[in-house]
């Protein structure tokens, strides 16, 4: 069985699916886990989801059962079986609307953050899981920031060209100097001048944003303003789409390096 769509709404990754047999009216979808179609009754009270078996992009037709328009059985997915799937009786043989869903295998990607010591060996490795594919150059833009060891607070400013960082609770900030990731639990923007407490005037005079981290900073990068000393800035990166960061552990420095020997 199949359905004809009223508009050209086939996703690009379905339209481009190849076929290896002329007897199939559309593109072969070999893996039922890749794409599926959800059908709704005219009154919207009932729905049913089936795996997509074939599509006819030219005629905007989608098939979930192995019948063609003439009622002939066609093994669309080439599995050697006739996968016959009928509409539930509640549909009264009529489909109201459909939703097409596809699973892209490249929805998630990963990268490694490697910290090396003076001996050239990897002393710490983190596995970073991202939702997006690829990296745009501006995704790695560095913003002026200060990470102070032992504190769960980071001060951040806009980029030199005025670009504002995209700050989200639950997202990650990357310390570009020490190659460490920290999850953001909260972020604040500099209050109006009359609303800044006297005790925080030094901080807000040096930074536009304050991040609260899930854990304390391990290695410092820059320093907060104290007394007459101005803030010292390092760099922070807010890579979009980071789902989680998994530390793979670390190795201790060899005894010769710990003793200061070459």
Which helices and strands appear, and what pairs or packs with what?
Elements: E1 2-4, H1 12-15, E2 27-28, E3 35-40, E4 47-51, E5 54-56, E6 61-63, E7 97-102, E8 109-116, E9 122-130, E10 143-147, E11 153-156, E12 172-175, E13 180-189, H2 201-206, E14 209-213, E15 234-237, E16 242-250, H3 255-258
Antiparallel strand pairs: 1-6, 2-5, 3-4, 3-7, 5-6, 8-9, 9-16, 10-11, 10-15, 11-14, 12-13, 12-15, 13-14
The domain count comes to 2
Secondary-structure-based class equals mainly beta
Major β-sheet profile:
6 strands, antiparallel, barrel
Number of helices: 3
User: Approximately what portion of the residues adopt beta-strand conformation?
Assistant: 25-35%
Sequence of secondary-structure elements: EHEEEEEEEEEEEEHEEEH
Features:
single chain; 262 residues; mainly beta; 2 domains; 6-stranded antiparallel β-barrel
Walk me through the structure.
This protein is mainly beta and 262 residues long. The protein has 2 domains: 2-102, no CATH class; 136-240, no CATH class. The chain contains 3 helices and 16 strands. The chain has a 6-stranded antiparallel barrel. The longest helix has 6 residues, at 201-206. It is elongated, with a radius of gyration of 28 Å. 17% of the residues are buried. Mean pLDDT is 79; it is low at 6-27.
């Amino acid at each position: 069985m199949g359905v004809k769509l009223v508009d050209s709404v086939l996703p690009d990754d379905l339209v481009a699916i190849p076929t290896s047999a002329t007897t199939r009216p559309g593109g072969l979808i070999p893996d039922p886990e890749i794409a599926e179609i959800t059908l709704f009754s005219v009154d919207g009270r009932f729905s049913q989801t089936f795996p997509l078996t074939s599509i006819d992009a030219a005629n905007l037709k989608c098939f979930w059962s192995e019948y063609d328009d003439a009622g002939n059985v066609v093994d669309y997915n080439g599995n050697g079986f006739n996968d016959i799937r009928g509409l539930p009786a509640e549909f009264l043989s009529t489909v109201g609307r459909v939703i097409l869903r596809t699973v892209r295998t490249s929805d998630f990607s990963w990268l490694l953050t490697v910290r090396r010591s003076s001996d050239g060996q990897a002393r710490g490795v983190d596995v970073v899981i991202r939702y997006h594919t690829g990296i745009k150059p501006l995704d790695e833009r560095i913003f002026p920031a200060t990470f102070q060891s032992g504190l769960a607070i980071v001060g951040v400013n806009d980029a030199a060209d005025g670009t504002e960082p995209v700050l989200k609770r639950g997202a990650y900030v990357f310390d570009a100097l020490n190659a460490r990731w920290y999850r953001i639990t909260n972020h604040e923007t500099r209050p109006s001048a009359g609303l800044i407490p006297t005790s925080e005037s030094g901080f807000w005079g040096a930074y536009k944003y304050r991040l609260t981290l899930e854990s304390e900073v391990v290695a410092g990068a820059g320093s907060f303003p104290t007394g007459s000393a101005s803030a010292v800035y390092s760099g922070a990166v807010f890579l979009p789409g980071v789902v989680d960061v998994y530390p793979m552990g670390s190795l201790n420095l060899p005894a010769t390096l710990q003793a200061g020997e070459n």
